[in-house]
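Treating backbone geometry as a discrete language has practical consequences that deserve illustration. Part of our work consisted of pairing the sequence of a single chain with a tokenised description of its backbone. What the numbers capture is local backbone geometry rather than side-chain detail. For completeness, the protein is quoted in full, as a sequence line and a line of structure tokens:
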Amino acid sequence: MNIFSNLLTVPAKSKPNPVKKKQHRGIEIKSEREIEIMRQSCKIVATVLKEISEIVKPGMTTADLDAYAEKRIREMGAIPSFKGYHGFPSSICACINNEVVHGIPSKKKVIRVGDVLKVDTGAYYQEFHGDSCITIGIVEVAPEAAKLIRVAQETMYKGIEQVKAGAYLLDIAGAIQDYAEANGFHIVEEFTGHGVGRNLHEEPSVFNCRTKNLPNVKLRAGMTLAIEPILNAGSRFTRILSDKWTAVTIDNSLSAQFEHTVLVTNTGYEILTDRSPIIC
């Protein structure tokens, strides 16, 4: 997901998502049957994001994209994971330019040429979630924005390449941090990836930089992880707007994010939200 990090403060009056399951403790290892269901939930997410990337154009609003995403998720037999989650009102998170995560879609947010647009969504299918995020450059973006988008995607894959049974979370975090910083960008540290499955957010937290503040978990086959680095062109620091959800860069610099749900295997990984196969 772009994400609802475990580190985010949730509004006090939020209502529970009707599809949110009772929180399990510990890290879940999925069975073959559960993995197959997650392949389907993740394929739904991948299909929606691929379609959004193809239809989005200047003059549309982020509310238009939200309505499209909800319609398509439901047409494919799933429920939007985000809508109602801790009170979040929409089926996607939509962030433009300096908005980092958790942007609420709005009819007032018009998409324009040159924008850096982040779209994050999830689908709940047969009791399992899929979660993914893309960043889209609208028509023709400035060279520095194009580089940010490219490096953000490459950074995610550098992290994914570390995934296999027997590896550690710090292997992922280190690869992400090193690649982002080598290209002149900063990792947003207060938002993390996460386990995903019966719950939209499960253990473990999948951090994007080296830290001693979270457990360095050893990966096991059957884990399903949302790997989702966020890169800022300027300061790594963010602030939350008055809507209690939208995080923006503290210096108004651009931000980009990519996310995939990934299965840990004995020999490596499987990207469950790969956007190559789609549902027609």
